[in-house]
UniProtKB/TrEMBL annotation:
The gene is crtY. This is Lycopene cyclase. GO terms for biological process: carotenoid biosynthetic process. It comes from Flavobacterium sp. ATCC 21588. One of its GO terms (molecular function) is lycopene beta cyclase activity. Belongs to the lycopene cyclase family. The lineage of its organism: Bacteria, Pseudomonadati, Bacteroidota, Flavobacteriia, Flavobacteriales. SUPFAM superfamilies: FAD/NAD(P)-binding domain. InterPro entries: CrtY, FAD/NAD-bd_sf, Lycopene_cyclase_b/e. It comes from the Bacteria.
Amino acid sequence: MSHDLLIAGAGLSGALIALAVRDRRPDARIVMLDARSGPSDQHTWSCHDTDLSPEWLARLSPIRRGEWTDQEVAFPDHSRRLTTGYGSIEAGALIGLLQGVDLRWNTHVATLDDTGATLTDGSRIEAACVIDARGAVETPHLTVGFQKFVGVEIETDAPHGVERPMIMDATVPQMDGYRFIYLLPFSPTRILIEDTRYSDGGDLDDGALAQASLDYAARRGWTGQEMRRERGILPIALAHDAIGFWRDHAQGAVPVGLGAGLFHPVTGYSLPYAAQVADAIAARDLTTASARRAVRGWAIDRADRDRFLRLLNRMLFRGCPPDRRYRLLQRFYRLPQPLIERFYAGRLTLADRLRIVTGRPPIPLSQAVRCLPERPLLQERA
């Protein structure tokens, strides 16, 4: 084998795997292949400090573009500040950490298997461990809604006055599902304004959402120069058959990231799950078979623990009228901060789950009961 580890896809999941393996095995021969010409400036990955292990927090803190000690949410009938740390990284900074990795841009993979990659020019690269981190693919084992967003980053003419991330400003008019504005203040005069929709359909009108972000800025009195835009269509899991997925992937390269359904079901955040998967791979022998066992075991266990989160999504998407979805989130953000932190980290306890669903039902009981079964949604896709 010419390499110890081959990773197809130089996005978040692939980069974190390369980092974890390199830190554990500095002499490992790692090659990363990506069809793009270089890292995109249209990706900002964020998460709560409590989502990451102390080791990953320390590893990524030096490249965080934004780092804050608290955050806010706002709804029509409830606003709140939470003292939970929050941070953001960008693709270029993350790629900059991959010293010693053979990173090949403009490299197009024709086929990927468990011993390497055949490129479109006919050449072959072989490796003992082969990972497929090329992004989301459609699968009958995952039924999703969509989180769609377009963000506009501007340099304001005067200080914008936003001191901390606004995770959700849902005081805006509701449309196309649950809508909110997401704000990241990178400096007193630099801010990312992101119009976000939790929608049933995956179509994205870039121009309309970008204009909605700019209109929000105008209402806040922010004028200035547009610096960049970013967009995304993230899956929100309603039903997931992880065992069936891995039965279909018993051979070949090991899928990770969005392509393997490895993301927080409710938020679509992929950074915390990607870090944990990277640790699982790095702790094993560098072979495709060993990596498959590690990722498959982690993914099936994670999918089982995330059943409750997918139920919440079904209540949101299938049990609640689109223009009233914000009420479920408004109710959730009245819960204790430690519970909210465990929710984002995917570490809910049984007591947490009971606390979320007890009290006045967020949707009528008859509709909630219809949301309980998960299997019918998968059968719809069969």
